[in-house]
Amino acid sequence: MEKWQDNRAWLLILPVFVIVAFSAVVPLITVVNYSVQDIFGPGQRLFVGTEWFREVLGDPRLHAALWRQFGFSALVLVLEIPLGVLIALAMPKKGWGVSLSLVLLALPLLIPWNVIGTIWIIFTRPDIGLMGAALNAMGLAFDHTARPLDAWITLMLMEVWHWTPLVALLAYAGLRAIPEPYYQAAKIDGASAWAVFRYIQLPKMRGVLTIAVLLRFMDSFLIYAEPFVLTGGGPGDSTTFLSIYLVKIAVGQFDLGPAAAFSLIYFLIVLLFSWLFYQALQNVGTGANR
Amino acid sequence: MNLEWMAWTLPTGIFFMVIVLMLIGMTVWQLQSPSIARRGLLPIATTRGDRLFISLLGSAYIHLAWIGFTHLSLWFATAISLVWLIALMRWG
Questions:
Q1: ipTM for the whole complex
Q2: Domains and CATH numbers, chain A
Q3: Domain residue ranges in chain B
Q4: Residue A274, SS3?
Q5: Which stretches of chain B sit within 8 Å of chain A by CB?
Q6: Most CB atoms closer than 10 Å: which of A67, A247, B76, B85?
Q7: How far apart, in Å, are the Cα atoms of A200 and each of A85, A194, A277, B27, B56?
Q8: What is the pTM of this model?
Q9: Does A254 touch chain B (CB under 8 A)?
Q10: How large is the angle between the packed helices A148-176 and A60-90, nearest 10 degrees?
């Protein structure tokens, strides 16, 4: 009978199940249905089996977009996670500075994503933008609309500016949750700052860093609004990521079948990598894989 | 209820029925004899549900690889996936 008390919790999370069913499961099922058919219009469709998957898997533009996407997500993780942890370590631990730094850090997270793109377009414009014009005045030809490298630099700056605060806030929350006696014990042992970080702070941040890595990987892998507004996938195809290419197929060309097949492959990649990251971060340093 | 917009087909219908039956089966199995995480061939400790998830994800990739690299019937990929699923559930 003791069990029954706990089981009532299921009833309380029922609304979430219903919402997820309608917002995620039913659309996903529909995408699976679309991926094996040629959709001409409402009620007009033809079963084509795995043809779209074959077409999409052999598409060189998709391969290019996929590698570009992996490069982007890898850069995001390599830059944002250490930077976020460093910021969290440097943040004040008490006093008015805490509120101030929290508010400042949260600001980029509050701006709508398409506005972020617009802000950076203006900021980096070679004629009037603060950064673009300043760089050009110094004799550095900088133009994110014409040069792929500049487009990537702008995109990475924007991404790091936008999302590192999330990592920093999560890491900060993790750091704040470490009880003071750990630090006192480290002090008694004469531990160096690095040893405190390596053996106390980093292991204690495992949970929040897992969430940070997962969120940043998934979000960066699915990124759409910011690069779409900033570069529109250009110059050429140099910043055409998977989601931008997907939208081109689905909305631009209205090829719903191939777009659905593409979406499923996309979904499977995100699922696999999220799972791998989750397992790696849960097991690292715990001795579970020895 | 008009479900035309979901564009159901018989193969996808069967596919989802199998998934749902699997989940129901696993739930009943779990209630009858709760699974305990253990180490098998995989480098991590897994429960029965973990192994089903890994085998289903693996099966999806086996099918994709089959479509991407060969022009043979997809049934071969399904057969390989079935062997993979059984092997993983038993020894994974």
A1: 0.90
A2: 61-256 (1.10.3720.10)
A3: 4-91
A4: helix
A5: 4-9, 11-12, 15-16, 43-45, 53, 57, 60-61, 64, 67-68, 74
A6: B85
A7: 14, 10, 22, 39, 38
A8: 0.81
A9: no
A10: 40
Mean pLDDT by 10-residue block, N- to C-terminus, for chain A (290 residues)? 63 89 89 90 84 90 91 94 94 89 91 89 87 88 85 92 93 91 90 90 88 89 88 84 89 87 92 86 58
Given a contact cutoff of 8 angstroms between Cβ atoms, the answer to whether B74 and B41 are in contact is: no
pLDDT by residue (tens digit) across B67-84? Answer: 989 988 889 999 999 999
CB contact under 8 A, A54 and B44: no
- Contact assignment for B9 to A29 by CB distance below 8 Å: no
Q: Please indicate if any CB of chain B lies within 8 Å of the CB of A54.
A: yes
Average the pLDDT over B16-26 and give the result.
93
Q: How many CB atoms lie within 10 A of CB A215?
A: 15
Nearest to A258 by CA among A108, A39, A111: A39
What six digits make up the tokens of A85? 């942890």
SS (H, E, C) B52-90: HHHHHHHHHHHHHHHHHHCCCCHHHHHHHHHHHHHHHHH
